[in-house]
Amino acid sequence: MTTVQISDLEAQLELIKQEAQATIAAATDLDQLEQLRVKYMGKKGPIPQVLGGMGKLDPADRPKIGARANEVKEAIQTDLDNRRTELQAAAIQARLEAETLDVTMPGTYRPQGRIHPLHGTIDTVLDIFVGMGYAVAEGPEMETDYYNFEALNFLPDHPARDMQDTLYLPDGNLLRTHTSTVQVRYMENNEPPVRIVVPGRVYRRDTVDATHSAVFHQVEILAVDEGLTFTDLKGTIKVFLQQLLGDDLEVRFRPSFFPFTEPSAEVDVKWKGRWLEILGCGMVDPNVLKAVGYDPEVYTGFAAGFGVERLAMVMHQIDDIRRLYNSDLRFLRQF
Fold it and tell me: Strands (DSSP E) along the chain, which ranges?
């Protein structure tokens, strides 16, 4: 068997160490450093290959080569750890430099948004009624004739339909003329007691002018329970309007007609020295209660509703409803 001199293996180990130290020092990123660790410290690296020749050494020299190989491994591992620390520190520093903000530079101006007067009015109204224990309910804008008219006591030949002529769709459906449709849908799926406030967009075939629009917004309320009376309705409306427009507000009720309430009333407020019609209300008609499966001998209810645009015009002293839809920034920036 051919023998190997211990000096030959020591020279190979030294060469491996020098080569490893040079390439580790030249590594430019952590991925490259990891590849070098696998190359020099792995089971298939050059050091195990050198140790494979120990069988040809004199038995007395083998422990010396084993010890020297461990020294080389430790030296390479130390260089790997030190270079890793350096590269990690450099990466952190580069990231800090790239992400550093110069707080002395002028900022980018972004104009502050404003709440549209219509949405602001709806939010204010909902806050008041939610504070009074009402839940917010919503429903579809495309409706059937049943929910928009028949379930609300508008019979097919009822003249009151003429006041709410709407936009009909090819499939026989229509665009709702009031948010009362949501009241019917809610009562069909919920047992009394009921207290809901319903905001939403509605549609009517109307001529657009300073006080009318074919598309506008409504908010309606509905309360159904045992023993509710017109007195409860009047108290609720008065508290709402006073919270909205001021405690010293004068409120009056005038007899009126709505197919789905009986008795019915129009509500006026004394505003800037004159009476203004602000909303309609009344006790829920027994036929409406029957349509949703409520027993009118046990339950009574009241409802009220108003147009948000007109209320916003009163609150903000706006002279033309069309200003709410023109998207004129000169107008909207006032709010």
Answer: 135-136, 142-143, 174-175, 194-203, 215-225, 251-258, 261-271, 274-284, 300-307
Report the CATH superfamily, name and number, of domain 117-332: Bira Bifunctional Protein; Domain 2 (3.30.930.10)
pTM reported for the whole predicted model: 0.64
Closest CA to 283 of 190, 221, 197: 221
Q: What is the per-residue pLDDT across 179-216, written as a single tens digit (0 to 9) for each?
A: 989 999 999 999 999 999 999 999 988 788 887 788 88
* Non-local CB neighbours of 77 within 8 Å, separated by 6+ positions: 41
- The per-residue DSSP string of 52-111 comes to GGGGGS-TTTHHHHHHHHHHHHHHHHHHHHHHHHHHHHHHHHHHHHHH---TTSPPPP-P
In sign, the C-alpha dihedral spanning 209, 215, 217, 222 is positive
Give the tens place of pLDDT for each residue, 209-225.
887 788 889 999 999 99
**Rounded Cα distance, 195 and 185, in Å:** 13
- Ordered by start, the domain boundaries in the chain are 6-99, 117-332
